[in-house]
Amino acid sequence: MATIKDVSRLANVSISTVSRVINKSANVAPEKEQAVLKAMKELNFQPNSFAQALVNKRSNCIGVLVGDLCGGPFFAQMMRGIEDVILPEKKYVIVMSGNHNHDREKDCIEALMLRRCDALIIHSKALSDDELIEYSQSGIPMVFVNRLVSSLEDRSVWVDITAGMADAVRHLIANGHRKIAYICSDDAAFADEKDRMAGYKMALEEAGIEFDPNIVSAAFPDENGGYRAIESLLMRDAGFTAFVAYNDAMAIGAISALADNNITVPGQVSAVGYDDNPISNYIKPKLTTVRYPIEEVGKRAATLALSLLYDRSEEFNWRWPLKFTPVLIEKASVTQARPEEPEKKPKKAAKKQS
To answer: Which CATH number is 4-55's, of 1.10.530.10, 1.20.1730.10, 3.30.1330.40, 1.10.260.40?
Structure first.
């Protein structure tokens, strides 16, 4: 493996000149710079990234805090967007997961700071705005993703979750449905659940439909939770012609529970999910859903982090808005409510899931 001394000898320049060319730390005569670059190419010389980081006082690493890398494709898609921007910049990504737990999120952020990451991209749901503001004053460029942090609006890349849920409910209302169930997360204190519930209630209120807690069913936000949430609605004979779910996973579980009770979607019950999980295209019927642009959010957050790191903020500000609005993706799981039976709903004791 070639060393900096080998490059120095072949280019006929000093080791310090080679170092200056590698680190771009001082002016070098053009002919010497070309000689060094040519020698590096001939020798297939790869600079030591750790040594460069010491010279530049940078680690060449971007730290990323996510919620949970094992909880489905959501954070994997976000990471793909981040890496699409970060890796071409010859930087590395260090990822830690906070699991939406207050103490763990704090530990992860502080660990990334101790590792001298050049910038941080933070997905935090458990820490308060005040805590995140305090971290932002550390001198390390920080971007907050999937959240609008008060007084740090110019560092927050976020999605209007409430608007997305409201659009989902409006779509069902436009198709004649008025008894619209909501299959929600059982963590009512979680910010994402609050935003979705707000969107659900907002769309009902706009249409003059009274909120009915009897057709709201909470469970853990995965496929099994969706199955149990619909079971609960069927067991209590809640009455609904359509439902909207906290996420696609719950919607898919709910559709399975309805099928086990010989209730067809969308023939008897229309369904809308949230997230546009790729698997929503591979169930029957294909699931109408709200596209959550998390990969684009990741790209935007990474671009903003680099703009803060390299003082490109002026260019970023006019090219890149920080707010995203989800988009309804119409597929096959919604149909018009039956006008002749507007109040007829599925009712039958749900079968136990095997």
So the answer is: 1.10.260.40
